[in-house]
Design goal:
With 305 residues, this protein is α/β, with parallel strands linked by helices. Among the domains are: 8-64, no CATH class; 71-88 and 135-178 and 227-303, TPP-binding domain (Rossmann fold, 3-Layer(aba) Sandwich). Helices cover 35% and strands 15% of the residues. It has helices spanning 35-43, 52-70, 97-100, 104-107, 110-115, 117-128, 139-149, 164-168, 195-203, 231-242, 262-268, 295-303; strands at 8-9, 16-17, 74-78, 153-158, 174-176, 179-186, 192-194, 218-222, 246-250, 272-276, 289-291. Strands 5-4-3-9-10-11 form a six-stranded parallel β-sheet, with helices on both faces. Strands 7-6-8 form a three-stranded antiparallel β-sheet. Helix 2 crosses helix 12, helix 7 packs parallel to helix 12 (295-303) and helix 10 packs parallel to helix 11. The longest helix is centred in the first third of the chain and has 19 residues, at 52-70. 35% of the residues are buried.
Length: 305
């Protein structure tokens, strides 16, 4: 940016810069854009001036939007970040569940849960207050639905347990690698039932409801720490990733394996890789594009909603 002669403020971020369309020293000239692209980006803000930093970011979004529009086998991987706008906190972020309450991690550890009735009692109380019961799909969830409706969504892989993708209306394949909080399962006999049935018993006074079929320990039908993932589910996720022409990773740290392995799987098969996350990930260096910003704003822009 020029050190003197700042004569404009960016319509997007408010920063001061020098704008002079007919001048070689115009700060916007730092960004190599063709006239049509520049006009299209400025039109989003009433043809107002945009600083170089915002132009670069908007140009990246514009390019990815074109990739998404051209793709025919999009595989989406979502993590906790897509659901925070619905009121469901993530785990490791600044306001994450485990950040604010380190003791909550014990409730998600299988060994502690099975061995300690006190942990189970605390977990059942936490389940009563889980934000998933009142959460609604947000703009990010709805944007992904647009990909399905135009026939471009090959598979949706999610690390989330809230079923907000299904509640948004997804009828296509949703691969839940970590299970769902909306079901309960018996650790003894494997029986599964709606979570609401067990929660009704807790509200009625049962502190640690047991399986009605065998008396075994009940837990949510989710994958806890120390619990093996379902091999068939992971295999299906890897297969779909290997068939993608574009992998869109949204709101995930991409640090939890084996599901993070879908990223190199898709990339090695020739897919473009786009990462949308507010923090760096281990795969940023191999991504074709990395976008930072609110998921509820970026996904609608990328998916054309």
């Amino acid at each position: 940016m020029a050190e003197a002669g700042l004569n404009a403020r960016c319509a997007r971020c408010g920063s001061a810069f020098h704008c002079g369309a007919a001048e070689a020293r115009c700060d916007c000239a730092q960004v190599a854009l063709d006239a049509a692209t520049l006009a299209r980006l400025q039109a989003q803000f009433g043809a107002a001036c945009l600083c170089p930093a915002c132009l670069r970011e908007l140009a990246r979004v514009d390019a990815v939007r074109g990739w998404v529009a051209a793709a025919r086998r999009i595989v989406v991987l979502t993590g906790a970040g897509i659901s925070t706008d619905s009121g469901i906190p993530d785990f490791r972020g600044p306001q994450g569940v485990w950040t604010r309450n380190p003791g909550a991690e014990a409730q998600s550890t299988l060994q502690h849960y099975l061995a300690d009735p006190a942990v189970r009692r605390a977990t059942w109380q936490a389940r009563l207050a889980h934000p998933a019961w009142t959460a609604e799909p947000n703009a990010g969830h709805r944007a992904l639905l647009a990909l399905e409706r135009r026939g471009a969504l090959h598979a949706l892989i999610t690390q989330n347990i809230d079923e907000l993708h299904q509640r948004a209306g997804h009828a296509a394949e949703v691969i839940e690698v970590h299970g769902t909080v909306r079901r309960v399962m018996c650790w003894g006999c494997g029986r599964r039932a709606p979570m609401e049935e067990a929660l009704a018993r807790v509200r009625a006074g049962e502190a640690d409801p047991a399986c009605t079929a065998c008396g075994g320990i009940l837990k949510s039908d989710t994958i806890s720490f120390g619990q093996p993932l379902v091999p068939e589910v992971i295999a299906r996720a890897m297969q779909r990733a290997g068939e993608a022409d574009l992998l869109l990773a949204v709101g995930s740290t991409l640090s939890v394996y084996p599901v993070a392995g879908v990223v190199p799987c898709a990339k090695d098969a020739g897919a473009r890789l786009v990462i949308v996350n507010d923090q760096p990930t281990p795969f940023d260096d191999i991504a074709d594009a990395v976008l930072r910003g609110p998921i509820g704003e970026l996904l609608p822009a990328l998916c054309g909603t």
